[in-house]
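User: Can you predict the 3D structure for this chain?
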Amino acid sequence: MAQDVSEPPIKLPQGAPPPRVPRSGDGHRPLYAVWELTMKCDQPCEHCGSRAGHARVEELSTEEIFKVADSLTELGTREVALIGGEAYLRPDLPKIVEHLTSKGMRVSLQTGGRAFHAERAKTLKAAGLYGVGVSIDGPAKIHDRLRGNLGSYSAAMRALEVAREAGMVVTSNAQINRLNHEHLWELVEALWKRGVIAWQVALTVPMGRAADRPDWILEPYMVVGVIDTLAAIQLEGIRRYDGKGEVFNIFVGNNIGYYGPHETTLRSRPGGKESFWQGCKAGQYVIGIESDGKVKGCPSLPTEPYVGGNVRDAAIRDIWDNAPEVRFTRDRNTDELWGFCKTCYYAETCMAGCSWTSHCTLGKRGNNPFCYHRVKMLEKRGIRERLQKKDEAPQQPYDFGRFDIVEEPIPEPAEAESPG
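Assistant: Here is the predicted structure, written as structure tokens:
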């Protein structure tokens, strides 16, 4: 698909296009690890990318986890986020936290919070847990629908409170989809009331159970409204916290962007150096480990195409250094781009945005329709893109199906259906 280049593309606020970001060379280390400790979970979330529920048949033992932790230390890992399933369902979680912190790593826990009670919070704090991030995906009715559990919202809010009372840094995260994208202000107001100043957001991607609910996935053209709203929330959060000794910050996930008028507002840290999207960092500074020992360059990536090896069969250093599935962003170039992204003004820097999102949506990376700049460029031609499901997901952990991109004329306002 050729891009309309009759007008200059949307620029960053500074007025200059981003430089090409070098990706090859030495010096890449897994500074940040996201480690799935178990697939066992106490909630049947209907948008769960890993299809969590029951523990895997052969999850790593405590001793195996300790050995991997030691190897991560040697590789230079500084921070570890523990996830599930629900990581707190492992009885040895306090021992794991204690071991990781003894190696000098900062350890946090990402949780749905269903049974994250005060006693559990105190125990993990004593073991050295630094922070807790609680997943909250909307107001109570919407959150409970997505989580498949009545009372899940109340439990998640309680988890925020007990973690704060235990003395840990408390954050929250949300997936954005058709059920909640018009309720972001309502959600963030509830978080502000509980003192949350760091909010991580990402688009729901059709992976795992979410792949079975295409009606929940945003259409590509809807991202403009979402990003406009997030930028407004960021600016209001900065205003509210100004002079109070704290700074509110939205951490936008790698699949929210790219290069629209709010790029630096959402990617920069308040008061810090301005930043912008510089391409997928999977296998450069982040590593993902699944509970049975599989290693990926990013925890979100689908399993089958991106597992570089297993810690039971190879040293994690060898996997990190040599597995092409892990180091693909260090070695690739624009030859893998296709569709609109192949001809885009920002191609060499963006590299089609988030690899996880494009692969799980279209069956391979290199073309990403969830893009602010792309939507606006197509809008000038009077067209928009929507997704049409083609292949079902095979019902495996971290799996995906496939969609086709369909172009259509932008409806007249009177004809347009409500996107909600």
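Residues 1-25 have pLDDT under 50 and may be disordered. The first helix runs from residue 62 to 75.
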